[in-house]
Amino acid sequence: MIFWFAIALMTALVVLVVGWPLLRGRTPAPNASAHGIAVYLDQLAELERDRVAGRLGDGEAAAAKLEIERRILREAATAVPAPKNDSRRVRLATASLLALLMPGLAILLYLRLGWPDMPDQPLSARPSASSEERQDPASLVAELERRLIDGSSSAAEWTRLGRGLMSLRKPKEAARAFGKAVALAPEEPELISAYGEALVEANDGSVIPAAREAFDKALRIDPDEPRARFYRGLALAQQGDAGLAVDAWLALELDSPADALWLPVLKARLEETARAGRIDLEERRASLREANPAAAPASTGAGVPVDPAARGAMIRAMVDGLAERLKQEPGDLEGWRRLARSYAVLGEREKALEAHTEAIRLAPDRIDVLLDYAHTIYPPGKTSGPLPDAFVSTMRRVLRLAPENPEALFFVGEAEAEAGNKARAGELWRKLLAQLDPASPTHGAIRKRIDGLAVTN
Questions:
Q1: 250 — phi, psi (to 5°)?
Q2: Secondary structure tally for the chain: helices H, strands E
Q3: What is the CA angle 278-312-376, rounded to 5?
Q4: 206-228 pLDDT, tens digit each
Q5: For residue 336, how many other CB atoms are within 10 A of its CB?
Q6: Is the dihedral of CA 189, 190, 193, 199 positive or negative?
Q7: pLDDT digit string (tens) for 370-410?
């Protein structure tokens, strides 16, 4: 009995909700044309005030008044009359018909399909809420953390946890998770690159030495791993090697398919770095295709051999072609610089140094040419071992030509400190310190070095 009473009550509520608008009738809609005409009348009044005040001449006022009057006539001509109220008798009959039909149809449908004695569905048979929760990164992370807390885990589970944490913008926690995964699967280049990327994100976009080591390891396993190649270029850019960064990224662009997801980010970085370093991107792209005119433009990603061996052979042919041309045109400074960078990207350090030497012969006082040579001798980011003599002598030469050069001030100061010349090292580092933002981490690091000199004296 209670069941049928509830059904009747709900039916009455539905009929009331549906039928009430019919019983009330329609409220006339506001007349938009009348509103428009009122606006134009206000404009006429304002126009007259401007004419009287002398802000408008009689001729201008007359022309404006004529235009407003035309608009008033147009508005009145297109006005739609408000709808008439429906007959109350018709509306009442319609509401009554709905009141009878709706409950009757509902009862017929229930008698045919309903089953009031149907038992409740067991909880175990109901759809699990966790299946939907797992679509949520936060729920996925919480579930994985519970599963991994006992120590029984796999590289795949740690990888899923790392990806979930990255989607939640928790790169420090993600780096720890990816580190666990790398420990369990140390030969997976994509996983190692993901670990390096998390380290970069955890350090506000800076490619720290640990991240650089991860990317280098990934590239030793797979030289074509795109994420590691991208961040290797970013590391070069952050260390001031815009030319090498652009060359590394152009090589990645050349190897990438046209629909690669990373291409928009790569192109944006290329343009930004080239702009900052005053590098002609198209000229650099042309140099990569110089020895192989049949290759498609690098920006499209088309026409590049898919097979890694064939692609490597094509790049090698380009570099060898440039080297052969420079034998015939040894006065091409930028050609020697491109060749040196190409050899550096290929890992052929000795050939890169030879090409840099030719560039220095042509431009012995160019700071950028000298720094390119120095960076090849002692790559940026290297933190161990004594400074090579050739590197130090090149930096001293840079310092003589540009006494304010920050890189030369730092490394010549380092060389003086290694030689025991504490006073000279302190002098150079204090000069460097004056150029730095006091709030920057670099300022703090140099200050610690200067303080360390005072302690050891």
A1: -65, -35
A2: 22, 0
A3: 45
A4: 888 889 999 989 988 888 888 99
A5: 26
A6: negative
A7: 998 998 898 765 555 688 999 999 999 999 999 999 889 99
